[in-house]
Design goal:
Helix content: 25-40%
Strand content: 15-25%
Shape: globular
CATH class: Alpha Beta
Order of helices and strands: HEHEEHEHEEE
Radius of gyration: 15 Å
Strand order of the largest sheet: 3-2-1-4-5-7-6
Distance between the termini: 40 Å
Oligomer: single chain
CATH superfamily: Vaccinia Virus protein VP39
Largest sheet: 7 strands, mixed
Number of helices: 4
Number of strands: 7
Structural class: alpha/beta
Amino acid sequence: MTRLDSAIRRLAAQRELLDWGSREAGPEGLVLEIGLGNGRTYDHLRDRLPGREIYVFERSPAAHPDCYPPEGYLIVGDLFDTLGPFIERHGQGSAALIHIDIGSGDEDANRSLAGRLSPFLEALLQPGGLLLGDRAFDMPSCRDISAETNVPEGRYFVYRKEA
């Protein structure tokens, strides 16, 4: 498979899961986009979830100018410096839907990062809340429901927090 084919598969999987997650997420609770990048997935979420509070986390914002969240909804800084205070301010179990796409080409670093982030993400999810991610996470109170989606195994990961 070429890198172009792989990128197309990844983007198609993202779109399919964002659409699915937007329909499946509970009607109450925050939506979190972790990793703004160029803003494509944030733009897609705000289109699919009009009127929802969508907070975006990004270490170094450099998105397309049309793809920035409104004032107060962009959390800038290292995730390990920003997620804790965000949880304190909004509370555990405040998120209905989390999308996280922060991987790099270094799989060892990605696994380590996912392991360190897992407790924060698990704490943020409300019962029944969904996490859509570009990698596997270790969240004991969540069930991996990736196989229940139409996305090929290992392409994207989907978790639902148990009640």
